[in-house]
Amino acid sequence: MKMKRFVSIALCALMLLPILAGCGAKTEPTVATAAPAATEAATTAPAVETEAPVALAEDVQKIVDRGVLRVGVKNAVLGFGFQDELTGEYSGMEISLAEKIAEYLGVDVEFTAVTAATRTELLDSGDIDCVLATFTITEERKKSWDFTTAYYTDYVTVLVEDASGIKTLADLADKKVGVSSGSTSAKALVKAMIEAGVLSGDGFDADTFDPATWTDGVSFAQYDDYPTISTALSAGEVDAFCVDKSILAVYHTDGRSYIDDKFSPQEYGIATVKGSGMSELCETLVTGWLADGTIDALIAENGIA
Ligand code: GLU
């Protein structure tokens, strides 16, 4: 089975990009059973007769040889990447997508729990092959990593203790907000407060914005992970907790509420090393799964519509 997939992927790699896209778009069940047809194609395609055997992109071949796809995922985001503390089992849409990529390659999958602060270091160091971890596609990030077409769009919002009386963006004026290091959240909140007329916007530059030094009308405390922000919120160390709504869901316990506003669409993509074979493979698979309804089905199955 592993070999069949390998052969059919190698054949895909032989062909030109539109054909590669078509091959990926068929998704893994087709790929898993397509070896005879692909072999036929190989004997008739002139490219195969005249060219030396073409290998997979080096980085993808390495994964196939290793027999394991290493994926960075979240472990506390319900419906996306969530690890059951008792069984250790991971579940969620991003987990299923990672499993499907591994299945396509005919390899096992190994999950590494990442945070907004650690996911890019682990990708850069080669500890993981790709990141499926509520990772928002931004122009700035695209300079350093490749992202697939978005497979999900979320929004940013703010969680508060009911006792605080904070209900709107305006109520956040002069408050201290807990955010994760390495996240889009602080910039998204300041932008939303400017757009709502709560902040003047003087001195705001999206390119140089730094949550650590911003103190104009709202300030930020940065943390390495979300449980710590939740604890800081209970302890009154921060007045509010700001991040994507999907991430906040698990901390939305009794006595806590979201403010009325949600803002700054967050498009999640699979991040890979820039210019790598994995980038091309993941893009082909994601666009195929968007087109054939696989991703819609995963969104519905995980209750995150
Ligand atoms: N999705 C946002 C980001 O990529 C929030 C942080 C997170 O994913 O943990 O910055």
In summary, what is this structure?
The protein has 305 residues and is α/β, with parallel strands linked by helices. It is built from 14 helices and 14 strands. The longest helix is centred in the C-terminal third of the chain and has 15 residues, at 277-291.
Features:
14 strands, globular, six-stranded mixed sheet, disordered N terminus
Give your account of this protein's structure.
- The chain has 305 residues and is an alpha/beta fold.
- 40% of the residues lie in helices and 21% in strands.
- Helix 1 (2-14) packs antiparallel against helix 2 (17-25) and helix 1 (2-14) packs parallel to helix 4 (35-44).
- The protein is globular.
- Mean pLDDT is 87; it is low at 1-50.
- The structure holds glutamic acid.
- Glutamic acid (GLU) binds at residues 116, 134-136, 180, 183-185, 243-244, 247, 266.
Secondary structure blueprint with pairings:
Layout: H1 2-14, H2 17-25, H3 27-33, H4 35-44, H5 46-50, H6 58-66, E1 68-73, E2 76-77, E3 81-83, E4 90-91, H7 93-105, E5 108-113, H8 119-124, E6 130-132, H9 139-142, E7 145-147, E8 152-161, E9 175-180, H10 185-195, E10 218-223, H11 226-234, E11 240-244, H12 245-248, E12 256-258, E13 263-268, E14 271-273, H13 277-291, H14 294-301
Parallel strand pairs: 1-5, 1-6, 9-10, 9-11
Antiparallel strand pairs: 2-3, 3-4, 7-14, 8-11, 8-12, 8-13
Bound molecules: glutamic acid (GLU).
Q: Could you tell me the strand content as a percent range?
A: 15-25%
Note the overall shape: globular
Instruction: Give the beta-strand count.
Output: 14
Q: What is the residue-averaged pLDDT?
A: 87
Which class best fits the helix and strand makeup?
alpha/beta
